[in-house]
Amino acid sequence: MTQTETKTESEEWTPKIIAFLCNWCSYAGADLAGVSRIQYPPNIRIVRVPCSGRVSPFFIIKSLMDGWDGVVISGCHPGDCHYISGNLVARRRFGIIRDVLEFFGIEPGRVNFMWASAAEGERFAVLIRKATKIIKELGPIKKF
Amino acid sequence: MSEEEEEIRIGVFVCHCGSNIGGYIDCKSIAEWAKSLPHVVFTQDNLYTCSETGLAQIKKGVNENNLNRVIVASCTPRTHEPLFRSCIQEEGVNPYLFNFVNIRDQNTWVHQKEPEKAFEKAKELIAMGVAKAAKLEPLEKIIVDTTPTALVIGAGVAGITAALSMANQGFETHLVEKEAEIGGKLNILDKLYPTNQDASELLKSLKKRVNDNTNLTVYTSASVKSIEGFIGNFEIEIEQNGNVKELTIGVIIVAVGASLFTPTGLFNYDGQKRITQAELETLLKNNQVESSNVVMIQCVGSRIEERKYCSSVCCMVALKNALEIKERNPKANVTILFRDLYTPGTYYEDYYRRAREAGVIFIEYAPEKMPIVEDNQVRVHNEYLGQDILIPYDLVVLSTPLVSNEDNKDIAQMLKVPLEENGFFLEAHVKLRPMDFATDGVYICGSAKWPVDITESIAQGYAAASRASTIISHSTLEVEGATSSLPEYNRNLCTGCEVCITVCPYKAISKDENDEILIQQVLCKGCGVCGATCTNHAIVIRHFTDDQILSEILAFGGQYDGV
Ligand SMILES: Cc1cc2nc3c(=O)[nH]c(=O)nc-3n(C[C@H](O)[C@H](O)[C@H](O)COP(=O)(O)OP(=O)(O)OC[C@H]3O[C@@H](n4cnc5c(N)ncnc54)[C@H](O)[C@@H]3O)c2cc1C
Ligand code: FES
């Protein structure tokens, strides 16, 4: 937290975003963005998980408590999950978690759930730009 | 390894990847800095960590420093994790104690204009990687039996080649074709470049080899209904004439080819006087070409905004058919309107030369000034003359691309493999694993991947078969050890709510006779959905444990404080 606060004063503040990407689609999509040299903001730190369904609500809350300004969870498109239906479980789960966060006074925009396939390097970059913009506008996360 | 707490000794290897990483960020100083991270006892930067020299440096580092965790910060685990895992395994370190940090595909390549930020990001990613590495646990792979049978979907020249190759190696092979006849496009083609052999002749000899092969079963007018299971043990249902046949299959090869594109609305296409190359092939085959003024137009429906790719076969097809028309009727006028002509390789350029010698006329057109097909003449703008040229015709032939099959999506879904943006199948890696899918035990060949000609389809058919046979030529195989488990020490946390049983996509979780949760390791694929759903955190997802992922989360706000 100290780091983000000091930065606000010196240079333009930019958010720290943790991105949980499923190994099979989105992580590969992020690699493809690289192979295609598609540029996007350097704010995300990627954590590789087997499937978007692996991301427990606990990780999201912990991340926000720990000073990450925002969270991205990205998996395969519905129907394309490497594990058949993990992403559908994830989708259901995140519908709920956004409500819970809002109840705690955390802007739902800090948690972004998205789909990007292994072939969608461009889409991945676009979605990351979008998520970065949303989280940046929300400003640094409050301590809670 | 002893059960007691062993001191954690991490080595970090930072790869320059030539200039791919090293050209943007200072790898040497990152390696130096990494020494300050907890548990890190050795660091080094390498020009190419994956090279002979790089691997030798890892081994030396492991031996001289008693490393029991190794991190490589480099390209991407999707291509290079297996290499580094086996490298440390050779030095006696469990392969699951390796951790990859992606600082190329997901860092220097996507922040080329912000190298300072990429530098900071690389350090943070390494800090996260180190934090996770400290929590990694050794795992053993699971051994499963394999079934020595193969399924090939699609009986075009690629699928037939693959199926024959598998069958000839002694594997029971099943070839499923949705049409009534095998052969794919060979059924509609006349002569074949680059040898001018009759397509029917090639097809006849392939059919004979298929019929004579006792290891090969062909299902025509059939389709694959469902695919369950995993490498070495897929459960397949084939439907033929309303009957369903169930098979256990070790490996699967996808060879569903591509479809013809109908240029409805383009260049006044009518299928009569203005036809496609495929329709021309049929006319040639039946000796029905009487036209004396033929105009061919290249790149119809390809290399445009909505279909950017080059279909790769059409230039050669046009040259082949132009020559064929000229041969049958030397007086015929044949004109080819083209954007670019691609005739690569050793034989193909020869066709172009021969076509010119035979008097075929070539006129270039620009995509901004498309030719216009009028009732009896084609109007094409010529840049050198600065004016339109009018060419009379009695037959216009449109060279249209091969496009992906509409039902690829269904097959992709059953196999859990991806399609690329044009709907063709996407391989695991274009250079490192060109015939594999990311899903284990499933392979791809021929024009299902992108448009290729017959020579290439045959080569790919053999290649896919040889990849597939590496799996089923052994009676057992190792599968991923990173599965979910309910460890003894967590049993008391389980409340028996059974949510894990409902969410598991593989039906790997059940209750045993004592009403206790039982996870079948072979069925589990390690997706982690059960672990993330378990309200009491009783289930452990090996290699992606709560503890390991939390350590990555905390490496930023917790231990790691900025520099
Ligand atoms: C007009 C034209 C002329 C050509 N001339 C030449 C030439 O002279 N020389 C040359 O080398 N190449 C030529 N080609 C290219 C050649 O046709 C291809 O290289 C070749 O057909 C590719 O073989 P394949 O097995 O990949 O696909 P295909 O031939 O398309 O075969 C695929 C097979 O899979 C079946 N299938 C599809 N979906 C399913 C499913 N879901 N389940 C079961 N089965 C399925 C199809 O029915 C088909 O039988 C030409 C192409 C065209 C269009
Ligand atoms: S594997 Fe990508 S979401 Fe499940």
Walkthrough of the structure:
The complex is a heterodimer of chains A (144) and B (563). Chain A has 144 residues and is of the alpha/beta class. Chain A is 44% helix and 16% strand. In chain A, strands 2-1-3-4 form a 4-stranded parallel β-sheet, with helices on both faces. In chain A, helix 2 (26-35) links the parallel strand 1 (17-22) and strand 2. In chain A, helix 2 (26-35) packs across helix 5. Chain B has 4 domains: 10-139, Rossmann fold (3-Layer(aba) Sandwich), CATH 3.40.50; 149-258 and 404-477, FAD/NAD(P)-binding domain, CATH 3.50.50; 262-402, 3-Layer(bba) Sandwich (FAD/NAD(P)-binding domain), CATH 3.50.50; 484-542, Alpha-Beta Plaits (2-Layer Sandwich), CATH 3.30.70. The two termini of chain B are 35 Å apart. In chain B, strand 8 (191-192) and strand 9 (197-198) form a beta hairpin. Chain B has a 5-stranded parallel β-sheet, covered by helices on one side. A 5-stranded parallel β-sheet of chain B has the order 16-23-17-18-19. In chain B, strands 2-1-3-4 form a 4-stranded parallel β-sheet, sandwiched between helices. Classes of the chains: A alpha/beta (144), B alpha/beta (563). Chains A and B meet through helix 2, strand 2, helix 3 and helix 4 of A and helix 4, helix 5, helix 14 and helix 15 of B. Bound molecules: flavin-adenine dinucleotide and FE2/S2 (inorganic) cluster (FES). FE2/S2 (inorganic) cluster binds at residues 22, 24-25, 51-53, 75-76, 81-83, 86-87 of chain A.
CATH fold-level assignment of chain A? Rossmann fold
Strand content of chain A: 15-25%
Sketch the topology of chain A as an H/E string, one letter per element: HEHEHEHEH
State the major sheet of chain B: 5 strands, parallel
- As laid out across the biggest beta sheet of chain B, the strand order is 10-7-6-14-25
